[in-house]
Amino acid sequence: MSRSSQDLSGKKSPSQEKDESVIIPPFDNSALLARFRLTLIGRTFHTGGRSIDALLAFMPRSGIRDVAGRVRGVDLGNGRFHFDFDSEDDLQKVLKKRPCHFNKWTFALERWEPNLQDNFPSSVTFWVRIRGIPLHYWVELAFKKIGDALGFVEAVDEKEGSVLVSVDVTQPLKMKKKAQFDNGDEVTVTLEMISFTATVSTVS
To answer: What's the pTM value of the predicted model, to 2 decimals?
Structure first.
């Protein structure tokens, strides 16, 4: 007779226990949420030959992000890290200087939020110049609609023909788009990344 997965005492075998989730009882995590309200979380996309510890030491320096002594960086492993700030002003100062680069190495940096996704954060914010729109169609609405096809548009500069957009760099970027206006006119526009050196997939 084969042995049952349970012994006579009713206890489950180790193999059964491995398949079961550990149930965590309810608890109050409001203090934790408050603790991380001034936290930015970052994620690198290419870690070969580069040190997270060097990035954490280098980025707060004066002349780079100018928050030295008022922020603490922690390596979370697997290319992820976070910065804890003393003030909202310093946190916003760093966010406004995106996209973030270190030694020709671009990384995502976003405000922390409760998130279970392994690929968070995966978006990078940068300026994109849009070429090919006829001058008589250079309006904010046109640039924003084209930017929306890339990701979340944070700002538009119609004088320069560019948009500040947050894109998911884990997805291919299509660098040519067709744009059609309400009178039927259609043009093909090309998108040019400005001050962005990360290696990302593109589709012509």
So the answer is: 0.60
Domain range holding 176?
123-203
Strand 202-203 with 173-174, pairing: parallel
* pLDDT above 80 for 22: yes
* 51/74 same-domain check: yes
Q: Where are the alpha helices (DSSP H) in the chain?
A: 14-18, 30-35, 52-58, 88-95, 140-148
* Cα–Cα distance, 125 to 182 (Å, whole number): 30
Q: Which amino acid is at 194?
A: I
> Does the pLDDT value for residue 46 go beyond 70?
no
Q: What is the CATH number of the domain that holds 71?
A: 3.30.70.330
Residue 200 corresponds to which tokens in the numbers above?
Answer: 């990302």
Q: Which residues of 8-26 are buried (b: 16+ CB within 10 A; e: fewer)?
A: eeeeeeeeeeeeeeeeeee
